[in-house]
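Q: I'm writing up a methods section and want to include an example of the input and output format. Could you take the sequence below and give the corresponding predicted structure tokens, formatted cleanly so I can copy it straight into the document?
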Amino acid sequence: MQTKYQEKLGYPVPRTAGKVRNTMAPWNQDFIRHSPFCVMATSNGNGDCDASPKGGTPGFVKVLNEKQLFIPDVAGNKLFHGYGNI
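A: Here is the clean output for your methods example:
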């Protein structure tokens, strides 16, 4: 995947570029299933950004499939900025 800045600023080496994927490998999914913490970063149509920390008992983030996660708002601040952006 190339960005509009790469022609001017340079291109990643193949090893680095190879890390970009459109699905989660099984080991990524397993890591997520065992993690007690994540950060959900989003932006809205105006480009306003939000990064919301999420935490809970390992497994609180559910891996639905190789492309989708279920991240609950358990005992959160009830602002729902990230969910509004999505």
